[in-house]
Amino acid sequence: xxxxxxxxxxxLSFQSLGIIYGRLSTAPLYVFETIDAGDISSPEEIHELxxxxxxxxxxxxxxxxxxIVLKADDDGEGGPFSLYSLLCRHAKVGLIPSNSGSSKMLxxxxxxxxxxxxxxxxxxxxxxxxxxxxxxxxxxxxxxLLGACMILxxxxxxxxxxxxxxxxxxxxxxxxxxxxxxxxxxxxxFKKYLPAPVACAILVGLFTLQHHGTKRIGCFFAPIIITWxxxxxxxxxxxxxxxxxxxxxxxxxxxxxxxxxxxNLRHGKLLSSTVLCIAGxxxxxxxxxxxxxxxxxxxxxxxxxPVLLLTxxxxxxxxxxxxxxxxxFHLSESIPNRDLEHxxxxxSLFASAVGSQATxxxxxxIIHQCQALDCFPRVKVVHTSNKIFGQVYVADANWLxxxxxxxxxxxxHDTSKLARATGLSVTTxxxxxxxxMSLVIALYWEKHLFASVSFLLFFGSVEAIYLTSTLTSFxxxxxxxxxxxxxxxxxMAAWHYGTLKKYESDVENKVSIEWLTDYSPRLGVSRVxxxxxxYSDVDTGIPAFFTHFISNIAAFHQVVVFVTFKAxxxxxxxxxxxxxxxxxxxxxxxxxxxxxxxxxxDNVRDTDDFEDDIIRSIGEFIMREEYDHEALNSPEGRMIVxxxxxxxxxxxxxxxxxxxxxxSSTVGVGESQRVLLDAxxxxxxxxxxxxxxxxxxxEMRVSVSQExxxxxxxxxxxxxxFLGQSHLMxxxxxxxxxxxxxxxxxxxxxxxxxxPVALNIPNAALLEVGTVYKI
Length: 775
Hints:
- By secondary structure, the protein is α/β, with parallel strands linked by helices.
- It has 26 helices and twelve strands.
- Helix 7 packs antiparallel against helix 8, helix 11 (221-242) packs parallel to helix 15 and helix 18 (415-443) runs antiparallel to helix 19 (449-471).
- The longest helix is centred in the first third of the chain and has 44 residues, at 134-177.
- The two termini are 49 Å apart.
- It is a multi-pass membrane protein.
């Protein structure tokens, strides 16, 4: 891997300011603002709260994320699901249906790639215990889904609180303009009624812009955040010097311990607001795939961290000397020059939109990851950048976020209530990351159990204190997070449960190869010209819906390819290792199995050349099988890893878009052994592909040439696609919870806008065969 240069680090650091650090940078808008002035008994408590802010920023984003968690990337990807995928591969705890069966081969391959003989994984007691007990598997999946739900809830709450807080500052600014003793009712109207409608209008505009993608609108974000941070840190430094320079002494942990010694319910309410200073720190890890570890770390340590500390210190210094002044807890009130307040109002609006954008984008990414691992319904995912694959847009989720965000803005119209819900989501997500990270330290990094437990206890205790404080505010606004959690968890749990049960039913009802090879001739089954692609979740045997089809139609195609998509808990599967190709039954039956592997950031199902790639891979499989006598005589289950053919002489060479003079379907044997394939592309043009063996390769057998020729003839005769549609029904007498999950899954399955196999299949060539399973 090429080493990252300092110029590349600088460019990525600049870009990360507009994407990752937008939320952290706008937190000063509502950290002190959400504190009830009546809960502060003395200026010393402001010093103690600043001590908490200082040490929280130091321990969580600086120490935990910058120096520890960022090292636990999954092939450059981050977030709760990346930690879960590491555990799935290295502790074998995956419950996803696509992680069973043939995926054992996938895990074995990944271990061979990522480890050497000197790095053998020791079978410690922790790994054995976690792999043995099924309850541990469910617990880890629940933690991963809990973290995902918190990120999705944050994508709803974060835009609402950011924009509403900024519009509140705008309302106060406009009220100052119209301030007149004879027009007090106008001033009060500005402050009371203006923020919510303006916030809703901004939210509509913000979500409407999402389809342009991060690449287009993100170029404006970094300069806005830089200007914003320099602006607020500038008057923060002024306030420290002008009002209370003693605030700098509060960096001592003595102030924090003094606060904890007199801890009660009132202090818990204060801490629930303080925790918002690290809202957005999880984006440092979740958005790792967009940037690099070095750029994220350098940006935070060298710029964001010191600037935020100056801002919070200046605001605390101002409040400590103006504790009883009206509106002293608002960031806009600490601006030294009233003429700058209007500039602040405009800047805060832009900065809030930037922070919201990062959260919304993180929501899109987590949906993409969950969907790839069968934990979220099928929705259309649009990749908005050709260079950065992690930049995605999900239209259905975008409009859902917008409706929910506007609903909470109108329903609560109070930044304090929204802040309490946001604080609970932040602390929950941080605690989930800590739990999963402690397991990664023990099971993946192979560190001593003491290191794992120490990490869990140290950071977990800090986050548990904040979690307890936010729970004390549950009935004062944090309850809305519970509603969002139940909503998203019901969707994800129902979809995962339905997918799991459907897969288990498919496996239970499949038939052996012998049924097709021995029993079907007795039924008078005939073979018709063409290629039939049979899509199912079964990776061995014959799917039940296909036997149902043959029993009624008594015919199938000359060449049959059983295609199965398997999600692997890795970000990407390299193209050279994407396909597992094997043979089904004897050679003369011309039936093959293709398992298509993809990671949670791959988009293999949206490829126009997908069909051609499979046929190329099968052609290469036939050639390799010629020299592998074990494969010729082995039962089903032996498969060869294939992908994009290479030019190293070991496999077939593919050359596309040949001239029409070469477009004859032939099978040649000799110095330049070649097979030509003439097939229609999705655009209606004829696509020519040549399979050619290097001249130094052994001479091709006649039987192999005939099989390749038969495949070409079948392709020219036409292609049909068979798609099994399994329908679930709850058995009579099932409990209410099971019936609710099944009903939710059936509703989501019927209303998914994205088909099960998104391959641009023409409707005239698609045949769906339905089966009903009662569970």
